[in-house]
Amino acid sequence: MKLTFTITAALTLLSLPWWPVLPPFWVCSITCIVFFFGVKTRWWWLAGSALGLTWAVLSANLYQANVIHIISNQKDTTITGTVGTLFSDKAGAQAIIFDVDKINQSRLAPFRSARVRVYWQSAPFPKQGERWQLTVRLKPPYGRLNETGFDAEKYYVARRIHAKASLKQATQLTDTITWRQQLLDTLTPTLSPLRFGPHLLALSLGERSWLTAAHWDTLTQSGLAHLMAISGLHIGLAYGMGWQLGRWARVWLPEQRLFTWLPLYVALGVAIVYAALAGFALPTQRALIALLLVSVAKRLGASVSPLNLLQLTVLLVLARDPLAGFSVSFWLSFSAVGALCLAHYGFSRSSGWGQAPRRWHWLRPLKQLLVVQLVLLIGMLPLQLSFFSGVSAAATPINLVAVPWVGMITVPLVFMALFLSTTGLGGVLCWQWANISLIPVMALAENASASWLTVPVASIGWAFTVIALAIGLYGWRCHRCSGLVIVFIVALITWRAPKAVNWQVDVLDVGHGLAVLVSKNGKAILYDTGNRWQVGGIAQAVIAPILESRHIERLDGLILSHGDSDHDGGADFIVAQYSPRWRRASEVRSGYQTCVAGQRWQWQGLDFAALWPPEATAPADNNDSCVIRISDGEYSVLLTGDIERKGEANLLASLGDQTQLDSDIMLVPHHGSRSSSSPSFIGAVNPSWAVASTGLLNPWRLPAQQVRAAYEHADVTWLDTAANGQVRWQRVDTGWQLTRWRQDRRAAWYRKMFKRRPVNLDADR
User: Fold this and answer.
1) For the Metallo-beta-lactamase domain, which residue ranges apply (predicted)?
2) I need a labelling partner for 721 at 20 to 30 A (CA). Which of 9, 346, 394, 602 fits?
């Protein structure tokens, strides 16, 4: 197979997440003609691009059509289907994947599919394999969109989830569960008491719901996150163990010639069974495809180079799942394999590679392991910075110890324990040994978590990363210097120095609620903290990742507008994690200064003026919201909380000079409710922009149409976080520079699908 054909087809498919618009179905007729023309003329790059484009357009359009079909049901809808998510009593309330086959008692057409994400809060909880009939309110597969943090919308596309749903009523139809669910139910009493039970469950069933945020922080910051899941590495280990078992079995079998290929078949069987334990998750599927190709080549007596194996695997994976490019695990796994393949070709030609004096031959495996880890460190650096905004300085030495330890001790113990547990022979002792085997590994991880280096991903950082990658893979050989020069020139051309920013205001996308970050000189003040949930909240999911990506370990200030949970829900977490130097609130709170009219203070050269309320109360309601005007002497921002028309009128009456309200940017009071934003108040503020912090399809139907119309009538540019995602104003030399995350930073086709439904989302006005 031509390398250019494979590369162009794969790159075209992998570019799908960045397409600004999605071509219609009829484009495929043109691309098919181009494909045959490319094959006929042997223009393999053209044929590959056309094939990739055809498959991408077909797959993406089909996914979009299924999304639009299912979310067209705007009222309460009855769906029938099968639970696709493992459930554990230890996990409690959780989001489940529900594979739908009937909508309102009508069976889906053969070309239709519907996968819905349902948040299940109370018993009776469903288990994988059961059939249920649910009454739900369907919502588009949208998510909050901020500068960093979990990208729910990309996750939904990668998992082919077509809608979210709020559960109204549930009726169980069958109680038959899958064998994986039965195994989980069997293992739960054994693994729950163990210290590393969550890690062992991830290694045995690929189920990571027991791993807490603290667990993930430790694993990520030590560079060991890849070890605590059934990944391609573990499927490879299973394959190797199966091969060895087959060799041992072949020795004891008669007529050994009849069992020449027994190790190969046993290896494939063990790898498939282990992948099945993980529910054939995407990383395991990719590993199985690669192992299947290797096995077929061995069986046929053919030789497959690592590069050919890589390109065939990529092509087959993308042919099976054209939306794989949306998955972070796809990029991580294939970038690791790609780096190793390039290292193989680069270093195998270098003198002395893999060689050592005969007296030091025992060091060769250690040298190879060290080089592999260094290649992975350099080769994975761009994606590591892109996805995680940092890198573990201790990852290489820790992996040198942890990878062989887990692969040679922990994983075999897990295999043995699974075998004993499934055959009814116990296995408790094996699980305990596996738990003990993780003690040194996790001790290393905990000690190394402090080695995490947060690195902002800027264009200059990318340039140095590319250069380091080129040097690491090719080495300082004279005939390769031209390649390094080209890389260096490209890096310099593509680098652009960012504009100097005086200060900036970020209205974060927190759904229904409010969180505003004011920052200058690497320092920050937070106005409101968003809502909280039973487990976690906006502070943990949105605010903390942003502060970490900006290297802000401590807030200079925290202001709570009032006491509603959608404004102060994350206050306790923020205080505990970021220890604000000062705290203010409009109500009487322990540890907080009061925010009352007439107070003024300065921070980083900015003037803060509290305009409302006249006195602190306990508790503070909407009309007691802390209203603050921030100014640099020329430009200003007004933060209004949830103040309503009565409070607005009283505020206007209390001001001798209403020009004190005059601001360039105004936070729309009370999320755009009809109870706020009186014409007189809008006129007194006289903003150029007004931004409402709202959640898409919220039950209060905010923002109200008449409120938006009032701002537009006053010639104010309207923005809201449901339509725009995070909204940022940066004070530069020429004034304010506006950035809307959904339109200006991540304007991809799949982020616009929910606009096909008739909702108030005209973000482009």
Assistant:
1) 512-671
2) 602
Q: How far is 295 from 175, CA to CA, in rounded Å?
A: 39
Alpha-carbon span 559 to 568, nearest angstrom = 9
Query: Distance between CA 627 and CA 637 in Å, rounded?
Result: 11
- Where does the pLDDT of residue 107 fall: very low under 50, low under 70, confident under 90, or very high at 90 and above? very high
Q: Position of tokens 């487990």?
A: 535
Which residue is associated with the tokens 């009128």? Answer: 649
Res 764: pLDDT: 33
List the beta bridge partners of residue 737.
730
What confidence tens digit (pLDDT) does each residue in 553-565 have? 999 999 999 999 9
- For 589-602, letters b (16+ CB in 10 Å) and e give beebebbbbeeeee
pLDDT band per the 50, 70, 90 thresholds, residue 233: confident
DSSP-derived secondary structure for 163-195: EEEEEEEEEE------HHHHHHHHHHHHHTTST
The predicted pLDDT at position 155 comes to 92
Q: What percent of the chain has pLDDT over 70?
A: 85
pLDDT at residue 627, rounded to an integer: 96
Average pLDDT, the chain: 85
pLDDT of residue 479: 44
pLDDT value of residue 278: 87
φ/ψ region of 21 (left if φ > 0, alpha if ψ in -120 to 50, else beta) reads: beta
Please give the average per-residue pLDDT across 277-284, as a whole number: 84
> Prior bond to 498 cis, omega within 30?
no
Tell me, rounded to whole angstroms, the distance of Cα 267 from its chain centroid. Answer: 33
User: Looking at this protein, which amino acid is placed at residue 283?
Assistant: P
By 3-state DSSP, what share of the chain in percent is helix, strand and coil, each rounded to 5?
A: 50, 15, 35
476-481-485 Cα angle (round to 5):
125
Phi-psi region of 672 (alpha: psi -120 to 50; beta: other; left: phi over 0): left
List CB contacts of 126: < 8 A, sequence separation 6 or more: 83, 87, 96, 120, 132, 170, 172
List residues bridging with 170 in a β-sheet: 134
Q: Which of 504, 379, 389, 392 is nearest to 456 (CA)?
A: 389
Q: Where is 40: in which H helix or E strand?
A: helix 27-41
- pLDDT bin (cut points 50, 70, 90) of residue 493 is low
Q: Give kind and range of the element (H or E) at residue 13.
A: helix 3-14
